[in-house]
Design goal:
Layout lengths: L9 H26 L7 E7 L11 E3 L3 E11 L4 E9 L2 E11 L4 E9 L4 E12 L7 E10 L7
Length: about 160
Amino acid sequence: MKLPDWGKSFSERILSVALVAAILGAAGTLGYVVAFPKQGEKFTEFYVLDEAGKMDHYPQTLALGVAGNVVLGVVNHEYQEVTYRIEIRELGATIKEVGPLPLLDEQKWEQKVGFTLETLGDNQSVEFLLFRSGNDTPYRSLHLWINVVNDIGDIR
């Protein structure tokens, strides 16, 4: 068996070997990038919209004991399935809980949620807290400032 002729001079042989090594290295790098793609940032979208699904007319004043409605949304960008739950709190006390919400990667959950406030007062913070399964610390939080009046006639 005769080996291929890689050129007549020593420098041509060195260049040929270097070219083959560069091609093999590039192919190996390409294979690695395809097999193990770099993951982007892991995060979860958590948002509150008005009843119509817009960022426009959030409830600003509610009558005592009358339900307010918002649309809550969660989008999972964590590269794995995550189970969420949402707590709605008035003055630090949980008034409603939503979930569990198991979401696959890139899956979206959006739903109209009603809540009722039971304490009179202006500029009350209503908190929307998002928790991931197995964690008692909120992962994300949102809030609305709402005036709670005695009856519907007091709404300005």
